[in-house]
Amino acid sequence: MAKFLSLWKKQITFCLIVLFGLLLQSKTGFTAINNGSFENGINGWNIVQGNVEVLESTNFSPTISPPDGTHFLLISNGPGDNSTAPDDSPYSDMDNDGQSDNQLTLVSQTFTTSGGLLCFSWSWLTSEEDTDIEYDDIFYVLLDHNIILSGSVDKTPEQSSFPNVPTDDISYSVNSSGPTNGSIFDDGRSPFQDFCIQVSSGTHTIEFAVADQGDSVVDSGLIIDNVRIKSNVAVPTMNQWGIFFMVILFAIAGFYGLMKKSSEC
Predict the structure, then answer these.
(1) pLDDT of residue 27
(2) pLDDT of residue 265
(3) Domain ranges of the chain
(4) Strand locations in the chain, DSSP E?
(5) What strands, in cross-sheet order, belong to the sheet with 172-174?
(6) Residue 113 has what pLDDT?
(7) Which residues contact 157 (CB under 8 A, 6 or more apart)?
(8) What parts of the chain have a pLDDT lower than 70?
(9) What is the DSSP string of 149-201?
(10) pLDDT at position 24, please?
(11) Does residue 75 contact residue 208 with C-beta atoms inside 8 Å?
(12) CATH of 46-231, one of 3.40.50, 2.60.120, 3.10.150, 3.40.1130
């Protein structure tokens, strides 16, 4: 019986080691982007300043379908020159072209992760493209205060050093109960694109910003959705779970084999 118990303990120990390894691998994929698809409104995000609102597809005319879920975030310097977004000195000229960035609208979140790919979906909207005003409206995304993505309206002459983002020339308007209501984007929007960047383990801050460059008149905006982290180490796969359950089955089979052998003795 002592030999039986010793063998059984070894099998149980082996199973626990396999399970711990799988759980540890799953744990290394931990991340904490809060409400990255905005299905819970603005919860988890910090509106630093400006006109920021969680919308649905029907808040736009024509409608715009979210890339993920039923909601997305609109960051707008509209409607018109009625925006409450003030200048903020750390962000006064992010593209370094000598033009002031007015009506800055900014939203952020600080998160902790074990590392991986930080990804999000984005679409740029504007009414600035076909105006006679020479200034470009701009947007940018900061990770730990460093620009990781940026863009400006697709027009000539170019004023901003940020890359031009072509739009579809369809006029979009916003009808909502919040601060982006009445925003008009006559020159359309860009298609949704995914952007990803590697992030290290630790605590980080991501910021999304839109600004009127040089003036405070024409509307531009940025839609953000599906902010998430793709872990470097995935949660256990079906194959990994299959290995674990196979080990359990072998342990059970061994247990009954030992029991039978013990009873024969």
Answers:
(1) 44
(2) 55
(3) 2-27+236-264, 46-231
(4) 46-49, 51-56, 60-61, 71-76, 101-113, 116-126, 138-143, 146-153, 164-165, 172-174, 184-185, 193-199, 202-213, 220-231
(5) 60-61, 172-174, 184-185
(6) 94
(7) 134
(8) 1-31, 82, 87, 232-265
(9) EEEEE--SS---SSPEE------EEE--SSTTTT-EETT-BPPPEEEEEEE-S
(10) 47
(11) yes
(12) 2.60.120
Residue 9 has, within 13 A of its CA and on its CB side, a CA count of 6
Instruction: Decide if 209 contacts 50 (C-beta within 8 A).
Output: no
- The CA distances from residue 176 to 77, 79, 185, 217, in Å, are 15, 12, 15, 20
- Cα–Cα distance, 207 to 148 (Å, whole number): 10
Residue in this structure with the two tokens 């901003």, named with its chain if needed: 160
pLDDT at 16: 53
265 vs 256: CA distance, rounded Å: 14
CA distance 14 to 8: 10
Cα dihedral 92→94→99→103 (10° resolution): -50
In angstroms, the Cα distances linking 115 to 19, 30, 36, 38, 52 are: 23, 8, 16, 22, 28
